[in-house]
Amino acid sequence: MDFEESMNFLRESGKFGIGLGLTRIKELLRRLDYAPGKTEFIHISGTKGKGSVSALLFAMLCAAGHTAGFFSSPHLHSYCERIRTGKGLIKPQEVAELMTLVRPHVLAMGEEGFEPPTEFEITTVLALLFFAAKKLEKAVVEVGLGGRTDSTNVIAAKTALITPIGMDHMDYLGHTIEAIASAKAGIIKPGAMVFASAGGEALEVIEKEAVLQKAKLCVYPRDFGAEKAEFSGEGQYFDFVAPDARLERLFIPLLGEHQIDNAALAVAAARHLGLAEREIRQGLAQALWPARLEVFSRRPLVVLDGAHNRLSMEALAKALERHWPDKKVVAVLGMLSDKEPGTAAAPLLPHLEYAFISQPISERASSGQELLGLCHKHGVPCQWEENIETACAKALAVLREDEMLLVTGSFYLVAPVREFLLKKREDL
Q: Rounded to an integer, what is the distance from CA 361 to the centroid of its chain?
């Protein structure tokens, strides 16, 4: 198989939709005689910030000289972004070689009456096989959906991180914070070291799970914290504080107060994994995580953010107030239908001067009617543009000196806009 054939096979597997549970992936790994080797896994779940925490921790591990891997989703521009090591993204040819190995077993499972693995399960298997082949020392694995029954939970991680938890994926995880937190806390393995920045009812669930698994739990900001956060034009400085240490003026090239929280969580885990202050400092400063409050352009000011649920929209709204209080906001906005767009985007609406509503490139895309209705409810002038590039071009055309362009609502919207803007930049 070549890379294109591999992607076509994955898309075909996507017709089975989202399927939680570990039976299919365990059977597939058994057929492949998978063995993780000596790789130490770090597992990260949560509703908001798990990707940023994962990226920050991965950067620190690389700065420390570890042979490290990183599995995340979704990707922005290339499928290969989902699987990487410190040397870069998995190569298309490597994906093809792994898929050539995996595909016959996937087909055999279907022929023998097993429920076929989903697209995400196959991707998880590719990542695990790749990490094993590279004989990595560490691998940071971001949960896809939930935790307890997510395909990534086949790993035996001695270190687990859980970010803030909110109402998301309710059709799969439950309609209460307690139910969702239980799913997220399912990544806690017996005797593990757990770092959590969740609070309230979610934290109570995590604490109970930690006790059940005889795991040690450190909670932000109770057991460690961040102080003296300071915004600069290129990122933020903060002090990490713990009972046994204070790391002053750590820099992250990420914006938003929530990223300080994410960085503190990642630093706590890095210290547990034995990283020195110099390695932590260097890794944080070098971390890259595009489309998370990314300042794509300064003249005009264009900000890209993959906020896609209520919690992330609240964080985005706070970031607008903190970083650009004097800027009026013109938005290109689109969300997925399973993210309850009619309520999730509400925290953002008071900050918008005008909105171009468009449709993310996904089968789960919202038609836009809920967002249009929400804009009208909040008195925000808006219009529908089916084509994402047209929406972006029109937004740029009307942008005034005192305004900024914000593109948000889903990575499936932000990614094509980012590609469009990159092409415009290249054409200048």
A: 18
Residue 171's pLDDT band (cuts 50, 70, 90)? confident
Q: Phi and psi (nearest 5°) for 388?
A: -65, -40
pTM higher than the cut 0.85: yes
Q: Are 243 and 30 in contact (CB under 8 A)?
A: no
Angle at 219 between CA 214 and CA 221, to 5 degrees: 170
CA distances from 114 to 25, 98, 99, 105, 155 (A): 11, 21, 19, 11, 22
- 24 beta partners: none
Separation CA 375–CA 382 (nearest Å):
7
Give φ, ψ of 352 to 5 degrees: -95, 135
Phi, psi (rounded to 5 degrees) for 356: -100, 115
Strand ranges, E, within 82-234? 83-85, 88-89, 138-142, 159-162, 193-196, 216-219, 225-232
Q: H helices of 185-309, where?
A: 200-212, 257-272, 277-286
pLDDT at 428: 43
Backbone φ and ψ for 167, nearest 5 degrees, come out as: -80, 110
113 exposure class (CB count in 10 Å sphere: 0-12, 13-18, 19+) = exposed
Which band of pLDDT confidence, cut at 50, 70 and 90, is reported for residue 37? very high
Report pLDDT for 427.
61
Identify the three-state secondary structure at position 291: coil
Q: Are 161 and 195 in contact (CB under 8 A)?
A: yes
Question: What pLDDT, on a 0 to 100 scale, did the predictor assign at position 367?
Answer: 86
Strand order in the sheet with 235-242: 225-232, 235-242, 245-252
Our CA dihedral for 57, 61, 63, 66, rounded to 10 degrees, sits at -170
Mean pLDDT of the chain: 94
Burial group, residue 171, by CB count within 10 angstroms (0-12, 13-18, 19+): exposed
Could you tell me which residues come within 8 angstroms of residue 148 by beta carbon, excluding any fewer than 6 positions away?
A: 182, 183, 184, 185, 186, 187
Cis peptide before 190 (omega within 30 of 0): no
For the chain, how many residues are written?
428
Gap between the Cα atoms of 331 and 349, Å rounded: 10
Give the number of other Cβ atoms within 10 Å of residue 55's Cβ. 22
Which among 329, 242, 247 is positioned nearest to 284, based on CA atoms?
Answer: 247
